[in-house]
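Listing S7. Sequence submitted for prediction.
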Amino acid sequence: MLASGDRPYAQTIQALRDKGLRPTRQRIALGRLLFDGGNRHVTAEALHAEASKGGVKVSLATVYNTLHQFTDAGLLRQVVVDGGCTYFDTNLSDHHHFYHVDDARLEDIPGDGIEVQGLPQVPEGATLERVEVIVRVHGDRKAG
């Protein structure tokens, strides 16, 4: 929680600095859109549209660059659903996803909600970073 004297974006600035990123105007604005509303999944195009609607003047290229910088810094996870469909996830916990094909939407599945067995042995010299499961679904949106 912010102290009463703190600027409303102080937490975003501090998070950027903690990860070694300079808090530029664009990073602060995009960071606030991404992190001030709880966990979410966004595409670069959707974030660009949200920024534009909110009066943030930023190019789509800057949005892409910023999302990749945030991912490299450990502030986001990149989730590739298909070769041309990449989401950025603010939830850094161990979890998986439902991909709702009908409306191109990701939904979190808790990390303990799926048990993965029979993984191949990791190549020599490599270490397993994580296993991500994407379950593709069609149909009505009845989950809350």
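Caption to Listing S7: primary sequence and predicted structure tokens for the chain studied. The CA atoms of residues 9 and 32 lie 7 Å apart. Residues 60-72 form the longest helix (13 residues).
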